[in-house]
Amino acid sequence: RTLIFATNNKHKLEEVQALTGNRFKLKTLEEIGCFDDIPETGHTFRENASQKSHYLAANFKVDCFADDSGLEVDALNGDPGVYSARYSGTRDSEKNLQLVLEKMKGKEDRKARFRCVISLIINGKEYFFEGTVEGTIAHEKSGIDGFGYDPIFTPEGYSKTFAEMDPDEKNAISHRGQAVNALISFLNKI
Ligand code: ITT
Q1: 44: annotated binding-site residue?
Q2: Atom of ligand 1 nearest to the CA of 29
Q3: Which sites are catalytic (predicted)?
Q4: CA 56 to CA 189: how far, in whole Å?
Q5: Long-range contacts of residues 25-31, Cβ cutoff 8 Å, at least 24 apart
Q6: C-alpha count within 13 angstroms, C-beta hemisphere, residue 61
Q7: What is the CATH number that goes with domain 2-189?
Q8: 45 phi and psi angles, rounded to 5 deg
């Protein structure tokens, strides 16, 4: 079974493919010849995930899913949230991460969470799958694995960041891991 994963983010693809294994062959936007700048103008992860999957289903007539995700920091009123990919005004993840660290200087409440919402469109119907992982924002970055804000996010119950975990360890507890596992069980049932 082949499913199109509506993403341009190679790290997301790697994480999801590690979970789906060879049960599903994932094709990326590039592989189906979609180089469009897919609109992402929603105010929630759900709206954005839905926008991405609907765009692809409508324009390319395929079954597909999209992941919208990000980091919510309590002391920053939930920012960067849906703006996670471009928090500093660029897609440079080092700049984005440094901006969070800077804004968090001197803050005692370091609570944060990653959220992931997947929108699946299959046979013309839409289904959502979600995951959340609670944690805290570290005082400095550490680790080189993963992507995005991983070097500054310490999941609850651990004393290392996502970037200090190997991919399987992160997938076992992450927001994306939870959402993808729910997607897989659904697909296995239909
Ligand atoms: P696509 O829309 O093409 O899928 P994107 O990177 O633009 O890729 P989003 O709009 O969903 O995706 O933004 C997600 C951002 O949130 C991502 O670029 C990271 O900065 C952050 N993020 C999401 N999941 C993450 C994770 O597991 N680890 C670290 N940062 C993550």
Answers
A1: no
A2: 3
A3: 68
A4: 24
A5: 25/1, 26/2, 27/2, 27/3, 28/4, 29/4, 29/5, 29/56
A6: 0
A7: 3.90.950.10
A8: -60, -40
pLDDT tens column, 73-91: 999 999 999 999 999 999 9
Give the sheet arrangement for strand 2-5, strand by strand: 25-28, 2-5, 64-73, 111-122, 125-137, 153-155
> Is 46 annotated to bind ligand?
no
43 Cβ contact partners less than 8 Å away, ≥ 6 residues apart: 82
Token duo for residue 62: 């395929």
Whole-model pTM: value is 0.97
Question: What's the half-sphere exposure (Cβ side, CA atoms, 13 Å) at 102?
Answer: 9
Complex ipTM: 0.98
Q: Would you call the peptide bond into 151 cis, given omega within 30 degrees of 0 as the criterion?
A: no
User: Mutate which of 132, 149, 178 to test ligand 1's pocket (most atoms within 8 Å of Cβ)?
Assistant: 149
Q: Which of 36, 37, 68, 109 is catalytic?
A: 68
Q: What is the mean pLDDT of the chain?
A: 96
Q: How many CB atoms lie within 10 A of CB 51?
A: 19
Question: Between the CA of residue 134 and those of 2, 95, 153, 154, 158, what are the distances in Å?
Answer: 32, 23, 9, 9, 11
Token code pair at residue 168: 């399987």
